[in-house]
Amino acid sequence: MKYRFFSLCLLFSLAINLLAENKNVSKLAYSGFSGGMMLHTGFVQSRDFAFYNPNGTVRETAKLQGAPFGIGGAIRLHFGEHLRVGSEGYVSTLTYGKNHSYSSIGWGGILADCAWHINSWTPFIGGTIGGGSVKNLTLLEPTPDDFTLEKNSTSYRKYTFMALTPFVGVEYAMTEKVHLVLKVDYLLNLTNWQDDFATGPRVYVGFMFCH
Fold first, then answer.
1. What angle do CA 199, 106, 165 make, to 5 degrees?
2. CA 176, 182, 15: angle at the middle one, nearest 5?
3. Rounded Cα–Cα distance for residues 83 and 144 (Å)
4. Which end of the chain is more exposed for a tag (fewer CB within 10 A), N or C?
5. Is the dihedral angle over the CA atoms 150, 151, 153, 157 positive or is it negative?
6. Alpha-carbon gap, residue 137 to 158, rounded angstroms
7. Whole-angstrom Cα distance, residue 50 to residue 204?
C-alpha cells in the first residue's frame, strides 16, 4: 500500500507542474497544493469473536478495544477557494489482550474535501474512498522466552476490504507555508466486515506544507 501511495504522490507532483502552466482563471482554477504527515490515536473496538479448538468447541473469546497508534500522510491539489482533491494513506496498530496481541490496519485512497479560509484558520470536511487490509495476530498463551514452538496458541488473520473514511478537521496557519492540522475520522469497512475488525474515531495531528 505504501508503494501505491508514493506512486500517487509522484503523479500528483507531475500534475502540479502541468496545472501551474494553465493561466485560465475560473472558479475551479488550480490554486496550489499541500502535503504532510500526521500521527494519530483514538478509540476503536470490534465485536466479540471466538477461537475454536480442532474438535469445534469454543476455546475462548476475545474483543479488540483500546487506543491505536499510527502514522500516515496526505497530499492535496487545491482548486478555486474551497475544493481540494488528493490522496492519503495510513497504518494504525492496536495492542490488546493479556498476551499483547496486535491488530494492524492499513488503508488509503482518493480524498476530496471542502475547505473555508477564515483568517489563520481553515476548517474542512470531506472523505476518502479506497481500500485497506487487516492483519490480526492473537496470542492465546504467553510467548516463550526461547525458540520453543507452541501448538494451538496463535491465530493469524489477514483480509482486505473497500474503505470509506469521512473526516472533519481544521488547519491553523503557523506561517504562510506551514499549517498545523487537527483531524478526526471514522474508518468504514464497506465490503468485508469481520468480527475482529476494529473501528472508531481516530484523532490526527500533524503538519501540512503548502505551496
1. 50
2. 55
3. 54
4. C
5. positive
6. 9
7. 32
**Could you tell me which residues are beta bridge partners of residue 87?**
75, 110
Phi-psi region of 56 (alpha: psi -120 to 50; beta: other; left: phi over 0): left
Residue 159, all three cell numbers = 483480509
Pick the closest to residue 90 from 173, 206, 211, 209 (CA basis): 206
Q: pTM to 2 decimals?
A: 0.84
Name, in order, each residue with C-beta under 8 angstroms of 58's C-beta and a sequence gap of 6 or more: 50, 51, 52
Q: Where are the alpha helices (DSSP H) in the chain?
A: 2-20
| Average pLDDT score over residue span 8-21 | 48
Strands 83-96 vs 58-62: parallel, antiparallel or unpaired: unpaired
* Bridge partners (DSSP) listed for residue 27: none
For residue 62, count other CB atoms closer than 10 A to its CB: 20
Q: Could you report the per-residue pLDDT of 113-147, keeping only the tens digit for each?
A: 999 999 999 999 999 999 999 999 999 888 777 77
Burial 153-179 (b: 16+ CB within 10 A, else e): eebeeeeebebbbebebbbebeeeeeb
Residue 155 CA to residue 51 CA, distance in Å, equals 8
CA distance 27 to 70: 37
